[in-house]
CSC1-like protein HYP1
Amino acid sequence: MIVSALLTSVGINSGLCILFFTLYSTLRRQPPNFHVYAPRLLAEKRIKESGYFHLERLLPSPGWIRRAWELSEDDLLSISGLDAVVFMRIIIFSLRVFAFAGIIGVFVLLPVNCSGNQLAEFNIANISSDSLDIFTISNVNDGSKRLWIHFCAVYLVTAFVCYLLYYEYNYVSSKRIAYFFSSKPQPHQFTLLISGIPVPPGGSVSETVDSFFTEYHPSTYLSHVVVRSTNKLRRLINDANKLYRRLMHLQAEPTWAKTKRDGFLGLSGRKIDLVDHYEKKLEDIEENLRTEREASLAGDEMRAAFVFFKSRYGAAVASHVQQSENPTYWITEQAPEPHDVYWPFFHSSFFRRWISEVVVVVVCILLTVLFLIPVVIVQGLTNLNQLETLFPFLKSILSLTIVSEIVTGYLPSLILQLFLKLVPPVMVFLSSIQGHVSHSRIQKSACIKFLWFTIWNIFFANVLSGSILNQLALFLDLKNIPSKLAVAVPAQASFFIAYVVTSGWTSTSSELFRIIPFIGSLLQKCCCCCNVKNTTDEFEVPPIPYHVDVPRLIFFGLLGITYFFLAPLILPFLLIYFCLAYIIFRNQFLNVYEPKFESAGRFWPIVHNSMIFSLVLMHVLAIGIFTLKELALASTLIVPLPILTLLFNEYCQKRFLPNFIGYAAESLIKKDREDINNPSMTEFFGELVTTYRPPALSPQQFSNRDSHNAPLLTHSDA
Amino acid sequence: MIVSALLTSVGINSGLCILFFTLYSTLRRQPPNFHVYAPRLLAEKRIKESGYFHLERLLPSPGWIRRAWELSEDDLLSISGLDAVVFMRIIIFSLRVFAFAGIIGVFVLLPVNCSGNQLAEFNIANISSDSLDIFTISNVNDGSKRLWIHFCAVYLVTAFVCYLLYYEYNYVSSKRIAYFFSSKPQPHQFTLLISGIPVPPGGSVSETVDSFFTEYHPSTYLSHVVVRSTNKLRRLINDANKLYRRLMHLQAEPTWAKTKRDGFLGLSGRKIDLVDHYEKKLEDIEENLRTEREASLAGDEMRAAFVFFKSRYGAAVASHVQQSENPTYWITEQAPEPHDVYWPFFHSSFFRRWISEVVVVVVCILLTVLFLIPVVIVQGLTNLNQLETLFPFLKSILSLTIVSEIVTGYLPSLILQLFLKLVPPVMVFLSSIQGHVSHSRIQKSACIKFLWFTIWNIFFANVLSGSILNQLALFLDLKNIPSKLAVAVPAQASFFIAYVVTSGWTSTSSELFRIIPFIGSLLQKCCCCCNVKNTTDEFEVPPIPYHVDVPRLIFFGLLGITYFFLAPLILPFLLIYFCLAYIIFRNQFLNVYEPKFESAGRFWPIVHNSMIFSLVLMHVLAIGIFTLKELALASTLIVPLPILTLLFNEYCQKRFLPNFIGYAAESLIKKDREDINNPSMTEFFGELVTTYRPPALSPQQFSNRDSHNAPLLTHSDA
């Protein structure tokens, strides 16, 4: 890539960012857009969707930037929970790392790279005078003493990143403990989820659980709730929901559409009132639901139960000590928050859960490694000749230069982007059939899957050209990894600089502008003006998709760390990206996203591990590069660095990881003692049993002749 | 190797075995040899070393074989503990596996191999008509359909081994639980070892421990003992022991040797009575010891303590739940048995223990991988020319053909054997500085180290010729491992058949004959007839060196599994080896070895894992061989097998491994309840505190003017 191309890309994307910022600054102040740009404030009734038109509202105002900037960490904690705080720590951590690396990169490494003349000397064919490659390490002369500067930079930045990683791990870990101490008594702290209950022949699950825990945990056991199969119920509720929506639509339509003939194709026979018809159907389903619900409450026990304890420590003890002589029975795990439970999982036995986990892991690996094959095939379909053969009527359009340029230039990348958009939902789906018991764990698992997917399909697939088998073969030949990467990675420097600018900048500012929800709301307004009331009823505040955003942030961190000494030019662009992300995500936490559950920063270890991976990858690259540049001594002297980094990681895991898995006896007992004198605890324990109840089992009402248009308060499964 | 050479080797080694058996059958009945062949019975006073001479005692008697054969598992359990039972299960498991594999190998695969004519057809230079290679898979024609028989055999034997592995894991696991239930209350069940105690400035360790456990475990905490530094004490005791022994020797010597002049070189000056002199010295040291012991009891606290609980479950709970918010403080682990504690370890903090562990792992890997380099260098010194240059006076002897043959033929292998003998003690030493708290864990850790050492230095170093770097390079090039191994491994088949015969058979029968202790006792009898009394005083029953014998058994298992379809001829020899081992080790458990501690079969997972490793190695070989033999389909169809085996292993670990780490709440509570009505428990708890006392702190007496020749009952540190 040449400098002018990069500048063009920067220009276009800066323009886009400014456009998005301006549009956002204007549109967010219009009441009809409140449910796109401030659903959170709307739900909390801090703003109203209706309001008078003010001219000044058309002027863009940057006030939101100030508010986002001034938001303190404690405020963020109180409005969006610890997960949001930890999410922001990823950005702060990256900003610090790349500010430090940026200073070294831009003021030390960049001049050194430019001063070399390796590329000019060897007069490599495709290198024009203003190629971006002269800013990379490739331009430093082979065997030059100046490479020792790069060597020092690698050591320095590694040390700095490790120091920051330790600091952040420590910080997040202490935040987690502080959060635990400041939390009110929460049901999941006192609850364990037990699976693999061995029911003796003729016994019931409930009796077995009761006798086991009164036998072995008499002093701490409180009570339990057996999980019951609600699959049939859920299906009925889904039917009822569909019918209910149809009825609502029907009510909004003119009267002639409400009747229909019951004969052949609705043309003959007697007229029937559709509203009446549907309502009767709905009542039937409701009757079914009621009987089914009663049946569910009585029978259909799964071999799993929520067991409640009198103290947090009691629950922790039961979850840490192996309960049964057969470790596949009485499997305990800390229960998720009540509204976080993923109910459909409870079918599976230990063995089936384990098998499905194995299968999902295999499918994920295959999906990650082979993803590009179908994409490339579909992209191949978009070449002009094939399109013309498939759709002959397009021939005249495709012969226009501009159209053909767009088709050949943008369509393939558009297809890739579309496929990529499909990946996170697929990963969530795979995680959900893996046997996780809560939405938060599904999300964490999907986050890890998507992270490795991104690293493979964006980093490695771009760096390593050739077929998938060739790419995999590289990793089977451990010895040659450094040298092969050292050739391949710097060659893609300009691609990744452009990637930061296009994908990074634009995706962040479109996150602010919320393109898809905005377009969705526009379409809704145009098409079904009559249904506005209905949509506000069903209006929901979205949660932040951590499984999409965390991997993205980490991936840009990986790019920065691996490229900082190869092509320091990437660093300023990354810094801008993280600055944008800093402001924009704070703003979104304030106005848009509402936490659905709280994992108390449990995903930080993922961030830590991926940073360690990035560092080691960078070291491997450095070993390869210094060998390639004929500086064997430097190459050898880098070798201790990955080993030290991995040892550092090992130490961090021993020092901090246990705090991300559970809480210490010390904390649990202290917290329990605080509650002893709390008069509200008896009430809390009384309510505990009812908290873990599948939503399908709580009574809902759909058919209500008297208040069709009023918001149905009992309707909770929409 | 040709058939006749193998037959010669078998002949020589069978002869040796018969010789050892006959010698043993004769010598074991002679009272002076009782402390070599039946130290256990001697120590238990079931036989007496003195006795009348009977002519019939010179006749070899095979009665011991019957007794060893008839020994039931319950008897073995009662006399040698669960470890011995589990050790015998390794042999029984191997016997079953190789009986099954042997039938398939000898009656199916061997005829198939012989019926091929690949080797004859291609008329390979060095193949004579009676080469052992015609019994191997190499002789089957390339692409022959008969290779599918080998393919089926691989699947069949894998399935059988997996079934047996599951069965044995289950059996050993249930034995462990049964052993726990049948055991009397033991101090280590109620005790935790706490390290990393954070002592506040100005506080003492004892107070800190007391306040922590009364605060957080008020209902189960009983008391504690702080570990005190006894290094200085141990040094003093060592000095005292040396002096004591010198005194004993002196007493046995004639009177003229008991005096010495105190002047120049003992020639001038006044005569002094050496006995008196040493006794005074000993008394001084004893005085020192007394004051030092008192000082130790008062001060010099280490940051570690044994904490006693009122119930097993209480101890287990405290050990499973993370105690402190900082996971590097209050580290808990189940205490070892009191006499199993390895006292010198207590110096190290969490960080130092971790670092020393890392260092030991690195040293072990280096030792394992680079071991052969110095050995080969030393072996190189034994070639004739160099010997003649170094020791010119040997020239005349070395010119004899027989001497030169022995020097060139046997000396290198002798040197290798000597170096190999040094390895287990080195591994024990490395494990002991790794930070393990008990002798049993040191032994287990040394066992794992020695196992991998054996696999690398006997299997891989023989299979892969070339330099160490070339060997390592193979493992860095994952893709080519199967094909390279497929070429190298079958080529060494005859070497390993000979290895089973020479090393396996002979080592086992020399284990029976106890060559080294026997020679030692002979030498002792010749040199210091006067000291017989002394040696019987210091006579000690040896424990079985599991860290040497378990890896050896496992290694022969690995040879059998990897070679069974390549060269089935190895199987009959292996079967004979395991039969010998079965009888001999049962006999040794009866007569020779006494357990020093009981790990309750904790080393079984090592056996399980290495068998899985052997299976996967066999599959990799099969993939390589079938590719080499141009049967690509079979090669592909083997691929699922290692994956299934690893999944099976994963399941086994989930199903059984927890039972080898701790006991389930169910078992612990049941056992605790049994003890509630046991009147002896109060006494037991009363004695608990005194059980974990460093041996250096218990009073010992060395100088005792009145009873020099009487066994010193208080002398316990010899």
